[in-house]
Specification:
It is built from 4 helices and 6 strands. By secondary structure, the protein is an alpha+beta fold. Helix 2 links the parallel strand 1 and strand 2. The longest helix is centred in the first third of the chain and has 27 residues. The two termini are 27 Å apart.
């Protein structure tokens, strides 16, 4: 029961982070690029967590794929990018990196019984990992999870943005 509660809290926090990232991304898009949310009849949802770095030469294609999912503005897909800090020691410091993002990736590696972490790596719904630039695999996993019935539901009662601070 305790483990189930931890998982639920973990997924809820991931969804809230996704919503906040989506709000941030949406507010940064040029006015002519904004699109209304895509209304989906999908029963499921997808949280895409891309572990990336500005110093990673193979990450731009993965960043682009994640960006395309963000631009779709599908209310059932939550794309998030986490910039890891373990590449910073090579000389190029990623201005978006945080140690907590690297730890999040290591936690997934432990949970998913992986031998190591890498970039670009994408985790879908906290359950499936793959190379972040493998567009076919990402699309396949996304479609699979979108067609699964969600087992939890979250309602956000209010969002406000005051002086660049988002409150949910």
């Amino acid at each position: 029961k305790k483990e189930c509660m931890k998982k639920t809290i973990y997924y809820i926090s991931s969804i809230i982070v996704s919503v906040l990232v989506f709000i941030t991304i949406s507010s940064c898009l040029p006015a002519n690029r904004k699109q209304p949310p895509t209304v989906s009849t999908s029963p499921g949802f997808v949280i895409m967590e891309l572990f990336t770095s500005q110093g990673c030469s193979s990450c731009p294609p993965a960043d682009e794929i994640l960006g395309r999912y963000a631009l779709k503005n599908n209310t059932h897909i939550f794309p998030i990018a986490f910039h890891v800090d373990y590449w910073n020691r090579l000389g190029w410091v990623d201005s978006l990196s945080k140690p907590v993002y690297s730890q999040r990736q290591r936690d997934y590696a432990e949970k998913l019984n992986l031998e190591s972490v890498y970039t670009p790596q994408i985790i879908i719904n906290g359950q499936k990992q793959m190379v972040g630039s493998d567009e076919n695999e990402i699309e396949s996993a996304t479609n699979r999870y979108l067609n699964e019935k969600a087992t939890i539901q979250i309602s956000i009662t209010g969002i406000s943005l005051i002086k660049n601070k988002v409150s949910v």
